[in-house]
Amino acid sequence: MYDELYEAWQKEVTEDSLCALPSDFYSRIASYLRKIKEENRMLDKKTLKAALLEHEALHVKRMLQELVWVRYKKLVKLTTQTQKLPTELLAFEETQIFEAFVPFTDAYQQFAKNLLHGQSTVNGQETHKRYTLRFSRTIPQIMGVDMKPYGPFNAEDVASLPIENAKIFVKQGFAIIIDVS
């Protein structure tokens, strides 16, 4: 298993593209590390074999840590560049993790695209900062900047409105902003 890890680590670190891993790679590495730990636990710490096993475990952990980090960076780069995720190159655990990541990147890219078109949307809903107001007179129903109807309002009614609409009511003396924090 050590040789297989070394080969995978060396390929991943030296190549720019994502390299293939067997689907059971991480589970076998985890078993391998457990075996080393268990074997070392049963040995006298002063023996040469114990020292060699400790040294082997240290190298396995270092290679594995770098392998996982390099693969993570490559996978994030692939998914953020809207390229198809190469599931045939992934271990089972990576496939499971990145199935949840891809919808996030798609949604974030759509958000960025909408933002560039002057829309601040998340999941298709406009996001607006809001103020809570107490009205001082009766106001008929209005259409908010978020294209939702608000009102009608009577004197002393309290409502949360998009900041753009709220500022107009306050400026005209029809309402006051109340702090609800």
Q: Could you characterize the architecture of this molecule?
A:
With 181 residues, the protein is α+β, with helices and mostly antiparallel strands. It contains 5 helices and 7 strands. The strands form 3 sheets. A 3-stranded antiparallel sheet has the order 6-3-7. Strand 4 (142-143) and strand 5 form a beta hairpin. Helix 1 (2-14) runs parallel beside helix 3 and helix 2 packs antiparallel against helix 3 (48-80). The chain is elongated and about 90 Å long. The two termini are 58 Å apart. 10% of the residues are buried.
Enumerate how many helices there are, as a single number.
Answer: 5
Structural class: alpha+beta
* Spatial order of strands in the largest sheet: 6-3-7
User: What is the share of helical residues?
Assistant: 40-55%
- Stretches where pLDDT is under 50 for at least 5 consecutive residues are none
Strand segment count: 7
Radius of gyration: 29 Å
Percent in strands = 5-15%
Written as H for each helix and E for each strand, in order along the chain, the element string is: HHHHEEEEEEHE
Distance between the amino and carboxyl termini: 58 Å
- What composes the largest sheet? 3 strands, antiparallel
